[in-house]
Design goal:
37% helix, two-stranded parallel sheet, Rossmann fold, alpha/beta
Length: 294
């Protein structure tokens, strides 16, 4: 296949790029960075560099400013929205002008789509609760779904908290444990719907290869854990000396509205659609994932 990938230099995208190339695919990567082409990878900084006659088999859209990179000022919240919606809009314009219509669009979203539901288990058909993340994901998914009017199969990748070494959420989550301090945030009873990066890549490849699959897919491990349970698992893999939870008030003071949205609340999400389709996770328990990472 020839695949157009946005966000192909990020934590997930770079691993996906390597996996696709290893499987024999050719990849065109849309990025702001200036990177020289390789045998199976072409890097572009403008979608206009994709000629109308280009034969793309699929498009995978992972681009977007990180939700956790900085404090949520009004300007940064706008950037979070525009970085996703504008890229998806530009991809739709590309899809409309291509002489050969790609078979599939796999477009990232997040489990923030559901909002906060306490201990309720959330499959893809769960109801939603209002919030910044929910509004963001709803608009992002709605824009991606417009590709279906062109006859393109659309899969929405509702990603959980992706864990692996070398980047992503694992770095800040592990930092206190690296100094011997075990902790959780707030009450510690909020749910963490995690997934190992290798399973994310495998799930994307699975959706790419199964032409009958369409719609939203939760990409989370089958066994979500609470923040306290994650702390206990970390202590089995890291040597710690004290346990010092971080009070909710301190987190609100340190990072503002992001604390309530991302850190002090969570979703108990399960990958119902993926498992029904026959996808097998390599890492079903957080202990297995942490053992591999550390």
């Amino acid at each position: 296949m020839q695949i157009l990938l946005t966000g192909g230099t990020g934590f997930i995208g770079s691993a996906l790029r390597d996996d696709l190339v290893a499987c024999g695919h050719s990849v065109i990567i849309y990025t702001r960075q200036s990177i020289p082409d390789t045998t199976h990878c072409r890097y572009i900084k403008n979608l206009q560099a994709v000629a109308d006659s280009t034969h793309l088999d699929a498009v995978i859209n992972l681009a977007g400013a990180s939700l956790a990179d900085r404090r949520w000022t009004d300007n940064y919240k706008r950037e979070i929205f525009t970085s996703r919606l504008n890229t998806t809009r530009d991809l739709l314009r590309l899809l409309e002008r291509l002489e050969h219509t790609p078979q599939a669009l796999l477009s990232a979203s997040a489990i923030g789509y559901y909002g906060h539901h306490g201990d309720e288990e959330l499959g893809e058909d769960a109801t939603v609760a209002a919030g910044f993340s929910q509004d963001l994901c709803t608009q992002w998914e709605a824009q991606a779904q417009q590709a279906a009017t062109l006859g393109i199969r659309v899969c929405l990748l509702r990603l959980g908290v992706v864990l692996d070494s070398g980047g992503g959420a694992m770095l800040p989550m592990a930092r206190p444990f690296d100094f011997g301090v075990a902790n959780w945030l707030g009450s510690g009873r909020q749910w963490l719907s995690w997934v190992h990066r290798r399973d994310v890549i495998a799930a994307i490849r699975f959706l790419l290869e199964h032409e009958e699959l369409v719609g939203p897919f939760n990409i989370t491990a089958p066994q979500p854990v609470t923040s306290r349970e994650f702390c206990a698992a970390m202590k089995r893999h890291k040597r710690t000396f004290i346990t010092a939870p971080v009070p909710a008030a301190v987190m609100r003071l340190l990072v503002g509205p992001m604390a309530e949205e991302l850190l002090l609340n969570g979703q108990r999400v399960v990958p119902s659609a993926l498992q029904s389709a026959g996808f097998d996770f390599s890492f079903t328990s957080v202990d297995d994932a942490l053992a591999e990472i550390f």
